[in-house]
Write a structure and sequence with these properties.
single chain; mainly alpha; MetI-like fold; 2 domains
C-alpha cells in the first residue's frame, strides 16, 4: 500500500486529497444546511416539494419554540447542569489525575486501570443502578440528581484524558518547586495547572458537550417539566400523527448554538489539547 502511494505523482495525490476532504466536508455540512433552511420555512413548504432556499422565509418556527415549547426553560436547566457538572468534574479529575501520575502509593496502577475500565462501561448499563441510587437519595427531578448522574461517567473520561497529558509534563519543574518550599498543592496550582490549560479546556469542553447532548439519564431522572433538559425538550415536537418539523429544526438550531460557540472560542485549546501527550516530553 505504501509503495503504491509513493508512486502516485504529487499533483494527483494532492488533487485526490482535496477531493476526499471536499466530499467529507459536504457530508458534514449538508445536514446542518438542511436543518437551517427548514427552520425558516413555512409548514406548507416543508411538506410539499423539496426546495433548497426558503421561498417565504419566516420566523414563526422560532416564535413557537420560544413561547409555546418552553425552550428557554430547557436551555436554562441544561446550562445549570452542564456548567456545574463540568466545573466539578474538572476539579476532581485534575486532582485524581495528578495523584495517579505523580504520587507513589500501593494500588496506584490498579486504580489507573480501574479508571479506564469504568469509563468503558456503557452508560446504559449504569441506568438502573443510578436510578435506584437517585431515588433512594430523593434526588429525582432535581439538578443535584442530574449532576451526580452525569459525573458518574464524566469523571473517569476526564481523569483518563488528563493522565495522558500530565505524563508528558516534565517533573523537574515540580521537584524544583518542592525544593524551594512548595507543597504538593502549590506545585499543582502554580506549575502543573498552567501547563495543562489546553488539556483541561479540552476535557471541560468534552464534558460540557456530553452533558448537553445526554438523553437517557435526562429522560429518566427529570420527569418534571421545570427540570427538563434540552435534549428531552426537543422530543416534545412530536404529536400523535406527525412531527412538527419546522419548530423542531428551529429548536435544534437554538440548542446547538451554545456548544458551537464554545468550540469556536476554545478551538485552539482543543487542537493543542488533543495533540498533547502524543510525544512524551
Amino acid at each position: 500500500m505504501i509503495s503504491l502511494i509513493d508512486r502516485v505523482p504529487e499533483p494527483i495525490f494532492r488533487a485526490l486529497s482535496f477531493l476526499v476532504i471536499a466530499v467529507l466536508l459536504l457530508l458534514l455540512i449538508f445536514p446542518l444546511y438542511f436543518m437551517s433552511i427548514t427552520a425558516f420555512k413555512v409548514e406548507r413548504e416543508i411538506y410539499s416539494e423539496l426546495t433548497w432556499i426558503p421561498r417565504d422565509p419566516t420566523l414563526d418556527n422560532f416564535t413557537q419554540v420560544i413561547y409555546s415549547f418552553r425552550i428557554p426553560v430547557y436551555i436554562r436547566n441544561t446550562l445549570i447542569v452542564a456548567l456545574t457538572t463540568t466545573s466539578l468534574v474538572v476539579i476532581i479529575s485534575v486532582l485524581a489525575s495528578y495523584a495517579l501520575t505523580r504520587l507513589r502509593f500501593p494500588g496506584r496502577a490498579a486504580m489507573a486501570r480501574g479508571v479506564l475500565f469504568v469509563y468503558l462501561v456503557p452508560s446504559s448499563l449504569m441506568l438502573i443502578p443510578m436510578y435506584l441510587i437517585i431515588v433512594k437519595l430523593r434526588l429525582q427531578n432535581t439538578y443535584t440528581g442530574l449532576i451526580i448522574a452525569n459525573m458518574s461517567f464524566a469523571v473517569p473520561f476526564c481523569t483518563w484524558l488528563l493522565m495522558g497529558y500530565l505524563r508528558s509534563i516534565s517533573v523537574e519543574m515540580e521537584e524544583a518547586a518542592l525544593i524551594d518550599g512548595c507543597n504538593r498543592l502549590n506545585a499543582l496550582w502554580y506549575i502543573v495547572v498552567p501547563l495543562s490549560v489546553p488539556a483541561i479546556v479540552t476535557a471541560g469542553i468534552f464534558v460540557f458537550n456530553g452533558v448537553w447532548n445526554e438523553y437517557i439519564f435526562a429522560l429518566i431522572l427529570s420527569q418534571d417539566e421545570s427540570r427538563r433538559m434540552i435534549s428531552v425538550g426537543l422530543a416534545n415536537f412530536y404529536r400523535t400523527d406527525y412531527y412538527m418539523v419546522g419548530p423542531m429544526m428551529a429548536g435544534a438550531l437554538i440548542a446547538m448554538s451554545p456548544v458551537v460557540l464554545l468550540y469556536i472560542l476554545a478551538q485552539r485549546f482543543v487542537v493543542s489539547g488533543l495533540a498533547a501527550g502524543a510525544v512524551k516530553g
